[in-house]
Design brief:
With 256 residues, this protein is mostly helical. The protein has 14 helices and no strands. The N terminus is likely disordered.
Amino acid sequence: MVGRAARRARGMAYGARVAAPPRPDARGGPPAPGDEAPEETGHSPLPWTGRGERADWLIIGGIAVSGIIPLAMLPLVPLLVSSHPALLELLRGSTASIINMGARSRIGEASIVEALLLAIPSLMMFDWLYWWAGRRWGDGVFVWLLGGPGPKTVQRLDRLHRIEARAGPAAVVLAYLLPIPSALVYAAVGEGGMRLGVFLVLDLLGTLLWTGLLAGAGYAFGRSAVDVAEAISRYGLWIALAITVALVVRMRLRQR
């Protein structure tokens, strides 16, 4: 992990008057002097130590909702991909929906501006939660998101901190293009001390870059991408239902 002194040295990369290291009372960070808790055996499945506060459960709940919503909206894809593609992009912000709108702008059925902008609210809706998780829990959030402690987690955590130390704000703008989940990048800059306002501006720029690339790809594909969307609208509902059933069955089997 990058040393705390190094984080203070590069704190200005995140904006004026930013204290880069997390607060001593961060739920997942080191305890304040004199407040060390007695050593416990085992590993907590949660990213904080001790009893969770309201903010901790709000973050956990928001992250859980961010994973449930795309699955819940999956049946909407075949229903809207052809008849209401703009609404689909606004609601889901998926890669396919943005490409579909870009392709339709090529053949005059949509606006390229709509293809660029409609997905932004849904794409950015939960990003701030990961920033907040990193700010509040420190390294605990990475261990939690990476599946618990272990050699692989340590290796991935070191890699993540190297990227955050070298790229800083640029990592947020390029988060969709980096070979690691964007949520980890957002948590890393939150843990590193980036202000929320600065993060949101950089996140917006990165999201615009991503939607621009996808809309441009759809525009280049043109009619061929629209034909694929039309096929999905005819047969995709059964595929979506099959996937949903498979996920439910898998969850039930894991609970046994």
